[in-house]
From TrEMBL:
This protein's name: Diguanylate cyclase/phosphodiesterase
InterPro entries: Cyclic-di-GMP_PDE-like (IPR050706), EAL_dom (IPR001633), EAL_sf (IPR035919), GAF (IPR003018), GAF-like_dom_sf (IPR029016), GGDEF_dom (IPR000160), Nucleotide_cyclase (IPR029787), Rev_trsase/Diguanyl_cyclase (IPR043128)
Organism for this UniProt entry: Amycolatopsis cihanbeyliensis
PANTHER family: CYCLIC DI-GMP PHOSPHODIESTERASE PDEF, SIGNALING PROTEIN YKOW
Membrane-spanning intervals of the chain: 19-37, 49-68, 88-113, 120-141, 153-177, 189-211
Source organism phylogeny: Bacteria, Bacillati, Actinomycetota, Actinomycetes, Pseudonocardiales
Keyword vocabulary terms for this entry: Membrane, Transmembrane, Transmembrane helix
Length: 858
């Protein structure tokens, strides 16, 4: 055992000089010790044994080549070699000088071959001290024993001195270089080196004694054999543990890797994720378990779904015909522990189960997770029958089963989470992310595919009337109808609410239209649910994957185009395909919505006013504030075009506030001029859903100091009755402020006397469609007369809009209608033109309250 220090001082010149001095001391001590031992042990040599020296040098050289480098600390290491074997033999076959020379030549030669020149002198001194200390101790033991020859005890003691000396010198070098090492670490290293040195010396000594045929050496040989056997068994157990750990790691990695691979599969195999690993992967796992246990057969029985039957995977010897019974006693094992069954020791039920498997012996362990049986692992008949399965096999299989159950449970959880992430929990269909993931590859690979978008238009009505439970039932029923119509292979998704999407691969636009018509007919059929039958209507839009420019689009773009087609459906045309003009329309709408706020600030949006005149005395009673938008790109925009878009974008509150501010400012100017003219502002259903709206109106009235009776809010029947529980409290608050409330477009909505009596309104406005038709349609004339009489019976002011002819005005006046509005009186006017109109067409007369009353000139 040689301790050749590998020192590369890196902490400064002081450490380098300190080590040089230490090297000189070691070398000097080695030379001095060699001279002293040489004089103490006289040189006895025969010329016939000249070959011993070179042979020992070769032996030392081979031992050095088999050395192992051990790092002590940064910059220092020593080499553990097997030089004890030639050293112990050298005690018997050569004098000190020959052994020292052979060891020195072999050690320095090894350093030179390895091109290690910075520590040759130090190691030369170590080599000399190793051999001299070994021979010195051996000589002392020899004298104490009194044997004239070299007893094996003396040789063994001397040989152990060599590694001890080199170790002490190396530890001293660590201190010289001021490196830190714990005492426990130094003692542990020294002990291990002495153990290895003892084994090497014992092997070499035993070999020499056997070759030399020494009769008294058999106790040592026996001791060495027993020691080596113990080392072998310890090493074999260590190797077995290592192999078991590798097998355990392999099995866990196989399951985990297959789980990640399954999670990375395309969405076309989303359902396969709930099935766990493929059969081939389970076969690989079973083969790994079989090889590690050296079993004749391994059977995996797995339940990959809670409600599924066991799936069986067999590797090794085939099972007897007939397979395994469903009611297997080995499946009823309690607890997660491994059970070891032998046919000679089992009870009758288990013995029958083993015979059914054709096995004499079996290890069986259940795979459990939270008291749920995931499966069973069985290993049958170890190949080494004389030994059978042992405790290590039981421990390994139990640990494997634990890891396998955990990994399998994690896989099932991962598959469930991924399934839930890509599926709608209500219908079980794909959701939007799942549909986009599933449709991505088909759209890329198949140029003639179609995306369908389906909307049921009664979902919100059913929710409001019957509750969300009934609406959900209707959505589930609609999803089933779509699945039955399209088939199981067509990707189908519920996007949101009662909106669905489907992907039709390899379909032309004509084929897609036919499918859409059939789908719409199925979805529009009545929905019988318990004691109710719900009538429904469906609208279908579709888009092909290649547009007119032959540019492919992604799934998000396809869904957007199909959605445009659905929105473009009108009346009896419930199925429409996407055309590029739809995109232009929606782009125009998008631009309007995004530019609306800036247009308000830039003055592009203005308020025009249409006068209203009381019929009996022709006084100008008020005006209706109407919004207008002069767009720099699109020109003059119709309110019927941009107001619904602004309302859908949630900006109607901004628009209402703008019109209200302008109207109140105009009324305030008239009041300052002595004119008492009211202004009417239209409200949206979204305004009636804002609980803070009455407070905002009250603040605006106070800010402009306008009496509340000079402000009128006009609202439609359908807007109020779409959500009366929310709208009525807002209307009552506004009415309590003194604001006049009017029902606009009366006659086109619910037109119910019961509803009208519930509303806190002051006016009704007859829809202009009836007023325009009075002159030619007796039915319209009757409707107008009925509305006037109904309004007066309820104490309401009746306003007729759409008055464009003198005969219509006269008829309304004869019926007793209170107020008229229309082109006969005036079109909507800007503020400047309204002022000019008032100056030109009205006469002013003093009123009761020192205010001016405007009378329309005839």
């Amino acid at each position: 055992m040689t301790g050749s220090a590998d020192t590369t001082p890196s902490s400064g010149h002081s450490d380098e000089w300190r080590f040089r001095i230490y090297t000189i001391l070691v070398l000097s001590a080695g030379i001095a010790a060699a001279v002293a031992v040489s004089r103490w042990l006289p040189f006895e040599w025969s010329a016939d044994l000249w070959w011993i020296g070179p042979l020992l040098a070769v032996a030392f050289l081979l031992a050095e080549q088999l050395g192992i480098n051990v790092d002590v600390r940064s910059g220092i290491s020593w080499t553990i070699s097997f030089t004890e074997i030639p050293l112990v033999i050298g005690f018997f076959v050569a004098p000190f000088e020959v052994v020292a020379a052979a060891h020195l030549v072999a050690g320095i030669g090894t350093l030179l071959v390895r091109r290690v020149s910075g520590r040759v002198l130090y190691n030369a001194g170590v080599f000399l001290l190793e051999v001299t200390s070994a021979f010195a101790v051996a000589g002392l033991v020899k004298q104490l024993v009194g044997d004239p020859g070299m007893p094996w005890i003396a040789a063994l003691a001397g040989t152990l001195t060599a590694p001890l000396a080199s170790t002490l010198l190396a530890l001293a070098a660590v201190r010289v270089l001021r490196r830190r090492m714990r005492v426990t670490t130094a003692l542990r290293l020294t002990g291990r080196i002495l153990v290895v040195g003892f084994v090497n010396a014992s092997v070499g000594l035993s070999g020499y004694l056997v070759i030399a045929n020494v009769p008294a050496a058999w106790p040592l040989v026996l001791a060495v054999f027993l020691g080596l056997s113990a080392l072998y068994w310890a090493y074999s157990d260590l190797l077995r543990e290592q192999r078991d750990m590798e097998a355990l790691s392999d099995v866990s990695l196989m399951v985990a890797r297959s789980g990640h691979q399954a999670a990375a599969r395309p969405a076309s195999r989303v359902e396969d994720l709930r099935r766990g690993v493929d059969v081939d992967e389970w076969v690989t796992i079973a083969e790994r378990i079989k090889d590690q246990l050296a079993a004749g057969r391994v059977v995996l029985r797995l339940r990959l779904e809670p409600d599924d039957a066991m799936r069986t995977v067999v590797v090794g010897e085939s099972l007897p015909p007939g397979g395994l019974p469903a009611d297997d006693p080995l499946l009823r094992l309690p607890g997660p522990h491994v059970r070891h069954f032998r046919i000679t020791e089992a009870n009758p039920e288990v013995r029958t189960a083993l015979l059914d498997r054709g096995a004499q012996e079996a290890l069986v362990v259940p795979l459990r997770s939270a008291n749920q049986l995931l499966g069973v692992v069985e290993a049958h008949d170890r190949l080494s029958r004389w030994r059978g399965f042992g405790k290590y096999d039981i421990q390994l299989l139990g640990t494997m089963a634990s890891h396998l159950a955990t990994s399998l449970d994690n896989r099932r959880l991962l598959a469930t989470l991924r399934h839930d992430a890509y599926h709608d929990p209500l219908t079980g269909l794909l959701n939007r992310p799942g549909f986009c993931l599933l449709a991505r590859d088909p759209l890329r690979e198949r140029p003639s595919s179609v995306v369908l978008r389906v909307d049921l238009d009664v979902f919100s009505t059913v929710s409001d009337a019957l509750g969300y439970t009934w609406a959900d039932r209707m959505v589930i029923a609609a999803g089933r109808r779509m699945r039955d119509t399209l088939g199981q292979q067509v990707p189908l998704a519920r996007l949101e609410g009662a909106s669905f999407a489907a992907l039709l691969a390899d379909h032309t636009a004509q084929q897609a239209h036919q499918v859409a018509e059939r789908l719409r007919a199925e979805l529009s059929a009545p929905y019988p649910m318990e004691r109710l039958t719900v009538e429904a209507n469906a609208m279908v839009g579709y888009a092909v994957t290649v547009d007119d420019n032959h540019d492919p689009v992604d799934i998000d773009g396809m869904l957007q185009r199909a959605d445009m087609a659905v929105r473009a459906t009108r009346g009896g045309e419930e199925v429409r395909g996407y055309v590029p003009s739809m995109g232009q329309i929606f782009m125009r709408r998008f631009q309007m919505v995004t530019q609306f706020r800036q247009s308000l600030e830039d003055g592009q949006v203005s308020v025009h006013y249409q006068p209203k005149v009381s019929l009996p005395n022709r006084h100008v009673q008020g005006v209706e504030a109407l919004v207008r938008w002069q767009h720099p790109e699109f020109g003059k925009l119709d309110p019927d075009e941009f107001v619904p878009a602004v309302e859908a974008a949630g900006l109607i509150g901004v628009l209402t506030s703008f019109v209200l501010e302008q109207a109140l400012r105009r009324v305030r100017k008239w009041l300052d001029e002595g004119l008492r003219i009211s202004a009417a502002v239209n409200l949206s259903v979204r305004n009636l859903a804002d609980a803070e709206f009455p407070a905002k109106v009250s603040a605006a009235l106070g800010r402009f100091d306008v009496p509340p009776e000079l402000l009128t809010f006009e609202l439609t029947e359908s807007g109020v009755m779409s959500d009366p529980q929310r709208a009525l409290p807002i209307l009552r608050e506004l009415h309590a402020l003194g604001i006049v409330l009017a029902v606009d477009d009366f006659g086109t909505g619910y037109s119910s006397l019961a509803y009208l009596r519930q509303l806190p309104v002051d006016q009704v406005k007859i829809d202009k469609s009836f007023v325009l038709g009075m002159g030619t349609d007796l039915g319209d004339l009757a409707v107008v007369r009925s509305i006037v009489e109904l309004g007066h019976s309820l104490g309401l002011t009746v306003v007729a809009e759409g008055v464009e002819e003198d005969i219509a005005r006269d008829q309304l006046e004869a019926m007793g209608c209170d107020v008229a509005q229309g082109y006969l009186i005036s079109r909507p006017l800007s503020e400047e033109r309204l002022e000019a109109w008032l100056q030109a067409r009205t006469a002013r007369s003093p009123g009761r309250h020192a205010e001016t009353v405007l009378t329309l000139l005839t």
